[in-house]
Amino acid sequence: MAEAPGRIAILLELVGDAVREILAHPLRSLLTLSGIVFGAASLVSMTSIAVGMQAMAYRDLESIGFPRSLRVRDQGPRGDATRAADLRHPGLRIADAEALGAMPGVASAMPNIWGTDQVIVGPAGRRIAPVEGVAAGYLTVRNNRVIAGRDLGPLDISNVSRVVVLGEAVVADLFGTAPPVGRTLTIGGTRFTVIGVVAEQVYEMAPIDNSWITRRMYVPWTWAQRYFREPGRIDQVLVTARPEADLGDVIRRAELLVRQRHGGAEDYRLINEAAEVRANLAMADQVLGGWNAVMYAISIITILVGGIGLFSVLLISVRERVREIGIMKALGADEGDIRRLFMTESLTLAVVGAVVGVAAGAGLIVLTKWIGTQFGRQFEIPLHWPGAVFAIGFAIAVGVLFGWYPARRAAGLDPVEAING
Amino acid sequence: MAALIEARGLTKTYRLGQVDVQALRGADVDVARGEFVAIIGPSGSGKSTLMHLLGCLDTPTAGRYVLDGEEVGGLHGKRLAAVRNRKVGFVFQTFNLMPRLSIEENVALPLKYRGGIARRERRARAVAGLEALGLGHRIGHRPEELSGGERQRVAIARALVGGPAILMADEPTGNLDSKAGAEVMRTFEALHAAGNTVILVTHDPNVAARAERTIEMADGRIVA
């Protein structure tokens, strides 16, 4: 007695027979598959692109450094203030920045002075530009790039040096084509030495325009404080938490500290940048979720339409093969044999369509990346596996759903009538 | 001799629109093991219907049918298909080979539907069957590459491959020229001589004359 074939051998034979039948009508099979192919391809490519873009936007936002920082901003006296505490309005002070900087879990507390527009005179011309007083490392903590010379250092701050970092966009007006680093200019009549040039970070995905950075000039905040403000007053403190610190805890303690120091006066404002970024990301997530839902819906409809194509082609196939089905029955094939024959054909077509579609979707992703490189953008778009798995799974469901009736119809044929055509 | 077929009062009624058509009006048939029987009669006499019932392709409206010791008159669907697969081998007038399959794949089909037999084993038995009928040199060919007589012998090999209790042929020479027809009839005679039970449906008296016994039909009844 020969060994009985295993389940896998039986399955392989069924699939082999189905493939043979499919290949006997290559054009018809191709047309049948097109709906499922398009549905799977659009699902895989669009969800991959959306998820890839979102990941890139996340990386951009994180690289800005915002998520670990908090800004405390001077509000000045309130116009409608009636409470005694508000009228005292001590305002934001250097001592506040020092107290914040001394808090545990705080990496830095950088004072800021928003200057006003000043007349800047350089060797090649003049320009009116805003002057900002910043701390050492303020420019680079937000990922801006010092493209010539150097950033402001701690000594520049403590010495109240008359040194300036120029925004990239103002260099040409003041120095023409000559390199500016090491040369001098005057700000409101005071002579400054240029120590560096700063350019903004360009982000691939985050909707951030930082070009204003390049239209300003940056001087030590200690100089700007004396030049622009009353003694002791500053405009803002940028508090950055240590990487290991609990950000929420740092923010709560910072808020408490400032409130105590100001005796309840509402002369400052806390800007929780982390929360702002989180809100932006949440909005991006929502948009993405909506986009993905739309893509899933469109793909489901496309694959369903493909399923209807599959359905009609299977019905045609049953009608064409009535006589064959009759012969099979005469030779002893039962309803299960016939049903399996057509169900396997339906499922094979559906799965082949979905797999071809996923491959086509992967091709579309490669194409998108290539188009990106043509515009100087580096897109990172990994294949979105949940989309691919869903496309194949749904195609299998469609194969079962739309194969069922034709298979049942074929299986139910009367052998005598079928064999006589 | 043991009865292979024992049918009593086989009746088949078809419904054509509003009218009932009685294709078979109570036929009693007995066939012994090893017999060679011809069923004859003009077209519309019910001989094809009788063959379909005896071959388990169809179920009788009424009557009892015992095939090879098994009561099959009331069987349907899967169980009837299994009986058909194991006990009956069919040969048709138009050969009814699968055009896209090679001849050995055609011959192996009944074993495929029987289930539980590995593909290699099925092929080996199909090849052996074709060789026994002198078709060994045609293995690997498709039906369309064969002559009519060869195709009918492929169909006979297919009918025999499962070791059926009974070989049923419906006008097996009807689509063949006289030379090929004579060769096919010699094949049936050889199979009968080897101990097979053969039932042959024909309206050709020359073909019927080759059988041991004839069952003559008219108007849905056995008349002789």
Which features characterize this protein?
heterodimer, A: 421 residues, alpha+beta, 2 domains, 17% strand, B: 224 residues, Rossmann fold, 4-stranded antiparallel beta sheet, 7 helices
- β-strand percent of chain B reads 25-35%
Helical content of chain B (DSSP H or I, runs of 4+): 25-40%
Count of discrete domains of chain A: 2
Adjacency order of strands in the biggest sheet of chain B: 6-7-8-3-9-10
Radius of gyration of chain A: 35 Å
Largest sheet of chain B: 6 strands, mixed
Described by strand count, sense and barrel closure, the largest sheet of chain A is:
6 strands, mixed, barrel
Catalogue the unreliable spans of chain B: none
Distance between the termini of chain A: 38 Å
Structural class of chain A: alpha+beta
Q: Secondary-structure element order of chain A, as H and E?
A: HHEHHEEHEHEHEEEHEHEHHHHH
Q: Taking all residues together, what is the mean pLDDT of chain B?
A: 87
Rg on CA atoms of chain B, Å: 17 Å
Q: How many domains, in number, for the residues of chain B?
A: 1
Per CATH, the class of chain B reads Alpha Beta
Largest interface: A-B, 25 and 29 residues
Helix and strand pattern of chain B: EEEHEEHEHHHEHEHEE
Q: How many alpha or pi helices of chain A?
A: 14
**Overall morphology of chain A:** elongated
Fold and architecture overview:
The complex is a heterodimer of chains A (421) and B (224). Chain A has helices spanning 7-24, 26-64, 84-88, 94-101, 138-141, 154-158, 168-175, 221-228, 247-261, 273-320, 322-330, 335-374, 385-411, 415-419, and strands spanning 69-74, 106-122, 125-134, 145-149, 163-167, 184-187, 190-199, 217-220, 236-241, 268-272. Chain A has 421 residues and is an alpha+beta fold. Chain A has 2 domains: 7-62 and 280-419, no CATH class; 76-266, no CATH class. In chain A, strands 2-3-8-5-7-6 form a 6-stranded mixed barrel. Chain A is elongated, with a radius of gyration of 35 Å. The two termini of chain A are 38 Å apart. The model of chain A has no long low-confidence stretch (mean pLDDT 86). Chain B is an alpha/beta fold. Chain B has helices spanning 47-54, 77-87, 103-114, 119-132, 148-160, 178-193, 205-208; strands at 3-16, 19-32, 36-40, 62-67, 70-71, 88-91, 166-170, 198-202, 213-218, 221-222. Chain B has a 6-stranded mixed β-sheet, with helices on both faces. In chain B, strands 2-1-4-5 form a 4-stranded antiparallel β-sheet, covered by helices on one side. The mean pLDDT of chain B is 87. At the A-B interface, helix 1, helix 11, helix 12 and helix 14 of A face helix 2, helix 3 and helix 4 of B.
